[in-house]
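Q: Here's a chain of 279 amino acids. Please give me its 3D structure as tokens.
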Amino acid sequence: MKRFFQRLLPLAIGKYFNLLVLFAPEKVAHKAYLLFCTPRRGKVLPIQSDFLADAAYERITVEDMEIQTYRWEGKGRKVLLLHGWESNTFRWRNLIGFLKEAGYEILAFDGPAHGHSTGKIMNVIRYTACTRAVVEAYQPDYIIGHSMGGLTAVYHQYLHPENSLKKIVTIGSPSDLEDLMLQYKRILRFNDAVFRALDRYLKRKFGFGIREFSTAIYAKDLNIEGLLIHDELDTIAPFRASEKVHKNWKGSRLIKTKGYGHSMHQDFVSEQVMDFLNT
């Protein structure tokens, strides 16, 4: 019964949006934006706390957010880890083991509205602002991002090429905001009028429309080594996203897997990351 209502709720919201857009397109766009940016999951679970307790904690203030950072000491270079949507720093538990063994200093933080960080919404703009603050505070040498974290890493580098980063790794990361919004549209089944209202809303709020935000475009300006790992059967972020970014990113390498899914926790993935960092 619970699953039945969970399936019906998105459709009910979509029908509400389709009706509301007839009378208040700006209002429906704002509501659609907030829903799109509000995570349902991602807080630290009790079973995850013991692993994170080994790190040194520090909270930093970014705009109206209190961001929880984690640091595992090491004598090697510094690696910053960016998790994806509805996740937290615990998702890196497997890779952290590899990084510890190799002696790297490991940095991470919970994104806005995720883990132990505050906030109610997360989007690439807020995530990038937090990434910028952490990079300035800790001066990492490398960034590794999964899914939205990888997208944020590329966007951050595009905005701030002057930083001291040497390499970026993206794992199962999307590229085009349009792909994400079309998926959102299919789930809720809202109509084109709602989509257009949301496009205008984002243009006013952030200066780019749905079809204008693309890390594949931003990658043309990157002057840094990159590694992209993506599964060709990924149902969350399409493999073509990494293909497009790789095509435009000089100095990047693309590794394709099959059957690893979206999370990409396998040792093979960690081994490829380590090889890239160590060379």
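Q: Can you summarize the key feature?
A: The mean pLDDT is 96.
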